[in-house]
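Customer escalation, tier 2.

The customer says the design service returned an amino acid string that "doesn't look like it belongs to this structure." They asked us to rerun it and document both sides in this ticket. The original structure tokens are below, unchanged.
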């Protein structure tokens, strides 16, 4: 793989990872409501799911989506409904008690009602996230040469995966930085509702995009 193609793939990975989208909207809200430490499984789940999805796209699932338009339509519907449910959960989430510091363990009642997305939940979400599919299918089609499929796919996936971790992490950090500014539960509620609306708004360009 030439340095020019590798550089272009890295730029693509950075731009697509750090720009607003469903994952980053949820990380921003999670950083505010739960802090960085409790959001780490969510963050690493996104990056792991992204890598697994790109490998799957490279080894044939991307072609399957292109050859079966109905499959991508079904994916968009399922993913869209799931994101609407996630937006509802974010909007109605009650902020954790301010008496519970980020490094402490919340009460059982609070933990059962308010918890960040798990690692496995974030990994699984990438499979129904239309933006993630558009990104990985585009990356594979653009930067992976068919005559060097395995080599190029491993390189592109590795580069994009490594870039994805700090890129999405910025959103969790930004959310956590707002914790002190938004101590008032009313403003936290407004913030959560705003994030939920932005998550819903992010659906439109995704649902209108073909693989």
């Amino acid at each position: 793989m030439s340095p020019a193609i590798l550089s272009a793939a890295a730029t693509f990975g950075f731009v697509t990872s750090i720009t607003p989208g469903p994952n980053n909207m949820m990380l921003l809200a999670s950083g505010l409501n739960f802090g960085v430490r409790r959001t780490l499984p969510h963050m690493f789940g996104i990056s792991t799911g992204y890598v697994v999805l790109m490998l799957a796209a490279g080894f044939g699932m991307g072609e399957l989506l292109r050859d079966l338009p109905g499959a991508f339509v079904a994916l968009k519907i399922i993913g869209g409904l799931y994101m609407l449910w996630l937006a509802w959960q974010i909007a109605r989430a009650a902020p954790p008690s301010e008496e519970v510091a980020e490094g402490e363990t919340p009460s059982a009642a609070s933990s059962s009602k308010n918890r960040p997305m798990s690692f496995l939940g974030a990994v699984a979400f990438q499979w129904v996230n239309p933006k993630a599919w558009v990104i990985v299918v585009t990356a594979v089609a653009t930067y992976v040469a068919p005559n060097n499929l395995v080599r190029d796919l491993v390189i592109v996936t590795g580069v994009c995966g490594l870039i994805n971790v700090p890129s999405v992490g910025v959103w969790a950090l930004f959310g956590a930085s707002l914790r002190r500014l938004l101590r008032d539960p009313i403003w936290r509620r407004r913030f959560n509702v705003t994030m939920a609306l932005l998550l819903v708004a992010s659906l439109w360009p995704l649902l209108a995009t073909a693989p």
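Tier 2 assessment: The sequence is consistent with the input. Residues 3-207 form one domain. The chain has one domain: 3-207. Sent an explanation to the customer and offered a walkthrough call.
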